[in-house]
From TrEMBL:
Stored Pfam families: EzrA
Membrane topology, record value: Single-pass membrane protein
InterPro entries referenced in this protein's UniProt entry, alphabetically: EzrA
UniProt keywords, alphabetically: Cell cycle, Cell division, Coiled coil, Membrane, Septation, Transmembrane, Transmembrane helix
Localization per record: Cell membrane
Transmembrane found in the keyword field: yes
Keyword Transmembrane helix attributed: yes
Residue ranges of the TM segments: 6-23
Protein name, entry field: Septation ring formation regulator EzrA
Coiled-coil intervals: 107-134
């Protein structure tokens, strides 16, 4: 037994040794990888990036940046490269001693130092690239600044007339930029690239703004000297023409406002001459706003007159028709109120409409009187156009509805009388057919239904003689009687159909009675039910009997009956 235990122990030792040797191999490979990374970061070409700076003037700011970047790189590389090397050596010793946890920790520490070197390289190269890019942009802006300066100087000399009184201030401003342009070169020669870039950036933007101002000044002068005075004149003469056509424009106060605008306009040219263009633009903007407001008010007056002219004929017709229809309604109500019951609310509406129409006519007359004056402020009366239209239309619709109701009273009266006569005739016809049918006796239900219909007819006939007649009530009673008549007729014809079909079924089945005892018994039962006035049940029994001896014969008999 102990032999097996010994063998197991030996196997375990061998496996453990193999695992340890494998782990040591893996850890050794990891250390070699870190050595390779360390070698790579030690070879990073940051000095080549610094060499690029020697193309610039290494004085002042440029020299300070060069020294700063070089010192930072050397310090980072020396310090963290040493830390990484020491950590890798220690890790290697740990592996040889099978201290894998400590080896991993030292290996990770080496990696952190290598990463610091790599990050510092990325940071510094980015700073160097940013510096060179900024220098190149500064050179470009300097070239553009010189071009803008020359073009501005040439434009003032060649086209000074278009700048008016602003020519001399512009020449002084442009002249002031002459030494400013040269200052950039001095800063660059001194190596102060950062200050040079900031300076040329500001100078370039100032020259761009100067160019925009020089483009704007002739437009401002043209607007002040020609365009706005012309608009003032057009508005003044336009308003005079409108006054001559009868427009009241006093509320717009055109002359007073134009006088104020002219005074404000006189302030603009001196501001342009002093190159105070923002304030000049602000005044011109307020002038345009004021002009737009006056034009809008004038346009509102013109539109108001057009609306009045377009609506007055329509309103005249609607008010005339409304008044005529109101008179017709009042006359008709007086004529028929003794014959028919008229809802008091409709009578009151017609009376109220008479007053409303007179009120609308009064408003409309006032509008017409206003337009017949020498001048009219149409915006003050145009709102009444919609008021008159809407109210006249509403009255027209309501009065039409009442008129249709009055007309319908006679029509409904005549229709109710006609329907009552028709019900009476139908009732007698159906009753005669019941009496002439093959019914053993007349079922009592038909006698009762006939009596109820006759009572209703008598009541309605008596109501027709009353004055004033409530047509709605009579119409409802007649409709109820029509429904009763329909029920009477439907049930009567249903009973007559059942009784006649029962006879036909029995007659058809008689040919089989002598040979079919069961059929004979069923037909006897049908005859018994027929004599007891149970026609529906008698028909069902007779149909079943006939179907039992000759399937389909009952349906054939029923179809022939319905087609006759």
């Amino acid at each position: 037994m102990w032999v097996y235990i010994l063998i197991a122990i030996i196997i375990l030792v061998i496996v453990a040794a193999a695992v340890l040797l494998y782990l040591r191999s893996v850890k050794t490979q990891m250390i070699d990888t870190q050595y390779s990374r360390l070698h790579e970061v030690n070879q990073l070409p940051f000095k080549l990036d610094l060499v690029k700076l020697k193309n610039y003037n290494l004085h002042g700011e440029a020299k300070e940046l060069y020294d700063k970047w070089q010192d930072e790189w050397n310090e980072t590389l020396n310090t963290h490269s040493t830390h990484a090397t020491n950590a890798l050596e220690q890790s290697k010793t740990n592996v040889e001693q099978f201290k894998f946890a400590k080896s991993t920790k030292n290996n990770e520490l080496a990696g952190e130092n290598i990463e610091i070197i790599k990050n510092k390289y990325d940071e510094l190269t980015e700073e160097v690239a940013g510096f060179t890019k900024a220098v190149e942009e500064g050179k470009h802006q300097n070239i553009e600044s010189e071009r803008l300066y020359r073009e501005a100087k040439r434009d003032v000399l060649a086209n000074g007339h278009k700048f008016g009184d602003a020519k001399k201030p512009l020449e002084e401003v442009i002249k002031a930029y002459e030494p400013e342009v040269a200052r950039y070169e001095k800063m660059v020669n001194d190596g102060n690239y950062l200050r040079a870039n900031e300076f040329i950036f500001n100078t370039y933007n100032e020259l761009l703004n100067l160019k925009d101002s020089m483009d704007e000044i002739p437009k401002l002068i043209k607007e002040v000297q020609k365009e706005l005075p012309q608009q003032f004149q057009e508005l003044r003469y336009g308003c005079r023409d409108l006054r001559a056509k009868g427009y009241d424009l006093d509320h717009i106060k055109v002359e007073n406002r134009l006088s104020t605008l002219k005074s404000n306009l006189n302030r603009v040219e001196p501001l342009v001459a002093k190159l105070e263009l923002e304030e000049a633009d602000s005044i011109l903007e307020s002038i345009h706003d004021e002009l737009d407001d006056m034009y809008e008010l004038v346009e509102h007056e013109v539109n108001a007159k057009n609306k009045f002219d377009g609506g007055k004929d329509v309103i005249t017709d609607e008010l005339f028709n409304a008044k005529a229809l109101n008179y017709t309604l009042r006359t008709e109500i007086d004529y028929i109120k003794d014959q028919y019951h008229i809802d008091e609310s409709d009578v009151q509406k017609v009376m109220n409409y008479e007053n409303e129409i007179e009120n609308l006519i009064s408003i409309y007359s006032g509008m017409i009187e206003e337009t017949e004056k020498n001048t009219t402020r149409y915006s003050a009366i145009v709102d009444n156009i919609d008021y008159l239209k809407n109210n006249a239309h509403t009255i027209h619709e309501e009065q039409n509805s009442i008129q249709e109701h009055l007309v319908s009273l006679r029509e409904d009266d005549a229709e109710a009388r006609e329907n009552l006569r028709y019900v009476n005739d139908r009732k007698e016809k159906v009753y005669r057919e019941l009496m002439a049918s093959n019914l053993v006796t007349l079922p009592e239900q038909f006698i009762v239904m006939k009596h109820e219909i006759e009572v209703n007819i008598k009541e309605i006939e008596n109501y027709f003689s009353r004055r004033p007649l409530n047509v709605e009530y009579v119409k409802a009673k007649v409709n109820d009687t029509v429904l009763m008549m329909n029920k009477f007729e439907q049930e009567a014809y249903a009973v007559m159909r059942d009784s006649e079909l029962t006879e036909l079924m029995i007659q058809y089945g008689n040919r089989f009675r002598s040979t079919d005892a069961d059929l004979n018994a069923h037909l006897n039962e049908a005859e018994r039910l027929f004599k007891e006035n149970r026609y529906k049940r008698a028909l069902d029994v007779a149909k079943d009997a006939v179907e039992s001896v000759e399937p389909g014969s009952a349906a054939k008999i029923e179809k022939q009956y319905d087609n006759n």
